[in-house]
Write a structure and sequence with these properties.
Structural class: mainly beta
CATH topology: Jelly Rolls
Distance between the termini: 42 Å
Strand content: over 45%
Helix content: under 10%
Number of strands: 15
Radius of gyration: 19 Å
Shape: globular
């Protein structure tokens, strides 16, 4: 728009025209204390992040993760951060990877089950909130509690806001209908963030600007 035209706009419209898109806001509660802000600006994996399987590198201010075939397991990495009711904002993009998880484990002693608690699972063709099975029970299976089919484009950044408060979980991505799920186990204490991604060795998911707040 030309400067002469901009000068004729009311001040309120000028603000709307020049301001960036509004950040996703929690719906299950209000943001409390900021517990974590990570932009991956260094050259190495920041303190308190750990790799379980797969390959992790830091380059161009981004965490790049990919599966390693020899592991015979999806790439998995964690950020230690004790929390319970919280909101987690993550930027991610697919660069060949076929799946991306953001979720939680139950803290030791919180539940009798063994394994993960729940995750938001994103693929290039859709996303879901999935409660994970109990690895101690061979009859237990994953439960998809909410899902939607949509397209996640390769090379495009998306912002995901995942909230957990009490037994409710809510996931938002701008421009999409939120996913909501409830389970009797979601309220437990959690030791930190759990990330996973899968694909061939060269298939990556990129992660940036991870922020976590207490949720009141």
């Amino acid at each position: 728009m030309k400067l002469s035209a901009l000068l004729l706009l009311p001040a309120t419209l000028l603000v709307a025209f020049s301001s960036p898109a509004a950040e996703l806001e929690p719906k299950l509660g209000k943001r409390g204390l900021l517990l974590l802000e990570e932009k991956f600006d260094g050259k190495e994996l920041p303190k308190s992040w750990s790799r379980n399987t797969g390959k992790l590198t830091i380059a161009d201010g981004v965490l790049k993760a990919s599966e390693v075939a020899a592991d015979m397991h999806a790439a998995a990495f964690r950020r230690l951060l004790p929390l319970q009711d919280a909101a987690v904002l993550v930027k991610f993009r697919f660069e060949g990877a076929k799946i991306f998880h953001l979720g939680f484990d139950p803290a030791p002693g919180e539940l009798k089950k063994r394994g993960h608690l729940f995750s938001v699972i994103v693929t290039p063709t859709g996303w879901s909130i999935t409660e994970h099975n109990d690895k101690a029970d061979p009859k237990s299976t994953n439960k998809t509690l909410a899902k939607a089919a949509t397209t996640f484009e390769k090379g495009r950044w998306y912002e995901l806001l995942l909230e957990v408060k009490g037994d409710d979980a809510l996931a938002q991505i701008a421009g999409m209908e939120p996913l909501h799920a409830t389970s009797k186990d979601f309220h437990v204490k959690k030791p930190g963030l759990v990330f996973r991604t899968g694909g061939k060795d060269a298939d990556e998911v990129h992660v940036d600007e991870v922020r976590v707040w207490e949720l009141k």
